[in-house]
Amino acid sequence: MQILDYEFPSDRIYDKEHCWLKKDGSRVRIGVTDFFQKLANEIVFVELPAAGRNLEAGKPFVSIESGKWVGRVVASFSGTVACVNEELKDFPYLLNDSPYDEGWLIELESSGEEHENGFFDLSDPRQLNDFQVFLEAEKDKITKM
Fold this sequence. Notes:
The protein is an alpha+beta fold. It has helices at about 35-40, 85-90, 95, 125-145, and strands spanning about 1-5, 5, 15, 20-25, 25-30, 45, 55, 60-65, 70-75, 75-85, 105-115, 120. It starts with a strand and ends with a helix.
């Protein structure tokens, strides 16, 4: 689904940190959105947590570097890192080229505790509208910088 100038597949949920989450039982695959990767420009380095590490909702767990900046990705769920996308160590550009497929970050075994920011399920018309309003506000913040 196209929103503004960005792609957002409707088979996942999105958080306010510009991450996507795809649930499969208690496992959650996490990556960054098209909006995130376009804002970052060319991603040159990704520091991932080790498998087995416990994550706390609301706390940073990944560091991403581009030619413009260094950013941290905040966990939307608490849980244990089940696996990481090892390909990103050698090919960080996968976050730019394929943010929803080959460029995923981690899979988390969720403890069920979620970050209080909430999520957007784009299959729900009201949440889709809320997400569009949120994204427009985010884009406005960036253009004013």
